[in-house]
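Sequence design from tokenized structure. All designs in this work follow the same two-part layout: the structure record, then the generated sequence. An example of the structure record is given first.
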């Protein structure tokens, strides 16, 4: 059996969804997108689930029917998926890269390919500069300007890497940290946890007794992937990996784990919004917990913070657009 991460399988299903949308297929794209979301959030690897119970175990995962389970089995056994390869041949464009352009969806990408032969971000930029996109029916000057702005933003994001590349690296480190004796929990935070398309760095939060902090930090900075150590202390460390990605680690006590995970997941505007809401309710929210006066009333889990504030739990990927009620 091939070693393939949940994140890699989810990425393939996201691309299948986009490919089907490009072809105008009804219902199926939403099903693949939904199952990709579920797989991204799974704590247990699909490989382990399959080893334990085969196809029936895969079908027990929410959103996974027999057809999807067979595709997951094929990916786990061979590392490839014939159905996915067949779809890519029908519309041979760099979907994952083009989808990074704000406002550019599967249908637009298909139109650009069919009318201008655009397969890549480079070809898209060339066509936009020449004014070819603005002259297309269904696009216009405003759409062309939006695409140019999206391309400029992508250039400014240089140094960032795609989710599909960074997530497996982070999951590998997360798995190692979880296996350290005395570590209660270890979870990827930051933009990775919010499933942003491009990632600037890796953030990981670990729950352990304060006395174990130094041991965890030393393990982290001594990993074979580490190229340079920027800083290290007893509760936090910052390094650069050989892949070029920066990685930060925070070690916190169990009672503050949820608060720290919430704080380092972000985004910044969302955190500010929630802290302001806490103040209106006579509380103080920070990376150490939710406090009423000097008493901590929540913080061990993210869910406890939301409950104490009278809110429903908001998944990390939905925090980009959420604004709490005033």
């Amino acid at each position: 059996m091939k070693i393939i991460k949940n994140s890699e399988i989810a990425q393939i299903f996201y691309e299948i969804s986009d490919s089907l949308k490009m072809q105008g297929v009804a219902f199926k794209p939403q099903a693949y997108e939904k199952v990709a979301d579920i797989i991204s959030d799974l704590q247990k690897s699909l490989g382990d689930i399959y080893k334990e119970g085969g196809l029936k175990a895969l079908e027990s995962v929410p959103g996974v029917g027999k057809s999807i389970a067979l595709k997951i089995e094929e990916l786990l056994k061979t590392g490839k998926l014939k159905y996915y390869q067949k779809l890519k041949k029908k519309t041979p464009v760099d979907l994952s890269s083009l989808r990074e352009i704000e406002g550019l969806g599967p249908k637009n990408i298909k139109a650009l390919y069919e009318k201008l032969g655009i397969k890549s971000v480079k070809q898209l930029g060339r066509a936009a500069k020449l004014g070819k996109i603005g002259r297309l029916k269904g696009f216009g000057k405003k759409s062309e300007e939006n695409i140019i702005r999206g391309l400029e933003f992508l250039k400014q994001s240089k140094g960032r890497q795609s989710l599909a590349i960074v997530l497996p690296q982070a999951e590998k480190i997360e798995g190692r940290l979880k296996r350290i004796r005395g570590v209660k929990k270890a979870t990827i935070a930051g933009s990775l946890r919010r499933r942003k398309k491009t990632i600037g760095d890796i953030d990981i939060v670990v729950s352990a007794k304060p006395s174990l902090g130094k041991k965890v930090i030393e393990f982290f900075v001594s990993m074979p992937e580490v190229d340079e150590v920027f800083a290290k202390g007893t509760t936090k460390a910052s390094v650069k990996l050989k892949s070029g990605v920066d990685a930060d680690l925070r070690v916190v006590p169990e009672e503050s784990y949820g608060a720290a995970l919430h704080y380092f997941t972000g985004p910044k505007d969302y955190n500010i919004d929630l802290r302001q809401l806490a103040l209106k309710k006579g509380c103080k929210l920070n990376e150490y917990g939710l406090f009423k006066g000097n008493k901590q009333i929540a913080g061990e889990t993210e869910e406890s913070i939301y409950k104490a504030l009278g809110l429903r739990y908001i998944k990390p990927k939905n925090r980009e657009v959420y604004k709490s009620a005033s």
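The first strand starts at residue 161 and ends at 162. We note this feature because it recurs in several other targets discussed in the main text.
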